[in-house]
């Protein structure tokens, strides 16, 4: 144990030197965009609850009713004891929302990506990812054992060149990208990417974790996965695809087969949130409108989604600005390597339908004074 502790301390010391050590901070979330840390009331711009639905009375009531009827947990793998009625209803609603034949709910978005790609690709196959793909997409690709290559961020021409050079020597091929990239807030040119993939008989998997409910217009991929924990205000992940693909996942996606099913409260909450999302287009439009208000006031490129990065550069400076904003009542967490490339530490500002214009303008004014 002495050598284990020494190893851990050495690693922690190195992280401290680079301002890269991460710490958990107790935080209370309230209605709207309210948060509290260390006794200080804050307006949170670091939450992915893009539509403000996690505290919606209908969503909370649905979760409470489901827990009362079916208990707090699913009881086991869905293939054994865990397939409570809310899961089937949620999958039907997700598939309809995405225009797909079927859907499958996983324990989280991370678990979905860990299971989907290895169920479709193996060591004789090819996977090509956008270089800025989320860590869980990388993890699923590597678990598959396939040849893994990257294409330049949002560059269909580079993707085409890679597929032209490598596709012929491989059995199956997958292209992985995101509709909205979580750290940059930009959107993939999906029509072009889908066209390139189709030309080379490659299947495209799109991660829509940060797009659903906010900016999900445009073409659909044959494999559309996402999360229930952001705009839908709950917890869990999903895949929307054809019925044969979903049926294959039920038997072959290890992160589905060998994991306890989603709790009834989480599934019911997401189901109700999806209904509200579809009923209230004005709620869906608000996060992007506010993000664009913010970028206009700071002279930044116009926001493409509810996520706006404010690039700082050095990790310690990003931490210092985040702390200064917290002192003024704004929670905007610094994002540092390895989540983002070295030298690109940033403030990741996330906008929600729960924010108002006064809060957005106040943050913009405070930040402008700090970054010049």
TrEMBL record:
GO molecular function, one term: 8-amino-7-oxononanoate synthase activity
Cofactor(s), by name: pyridoxal 5'-phosphate
Lineage: Bacteria, Pseudomonadati, Pseudomonadota, Alphaproteobacteria, Hyphomicrobiales
Domain of life, source organism: Bacteria
PANTHER family in alphabetical order: 8-AMINO-7-OXONONANOATE SYNTHASE, CLASS II AMINOTRANSFERASE/8-AMINO-7-OXONONANOATE SYNTHASE
Subunit structure: Homodimer.
EC number assigned by the record: 2.3.1.47
Pfam (any one): Aminotran_1_2
Official protein name in the record: 8-amino-7-oxononanoate synthase
Family recorded in the similarity comment: Belongs to the class-II pyridoxal-phosphate-dependent aminotransferase family. BioF subfamily.
Gene3D superfamilies, per database record: Aspartate Aminotransferase, domain 1, Type I PLP-dependent aspartate aminotransferase-like (Major domain)
Gene Ontology biological-process annotations: biotin biosynthetic process
Keywords carried by this UniProt record: Biotin biosynthesis, Pyridoxal phosphate, Transferase
Domain Aminotransferase class I/classII large: 42-367
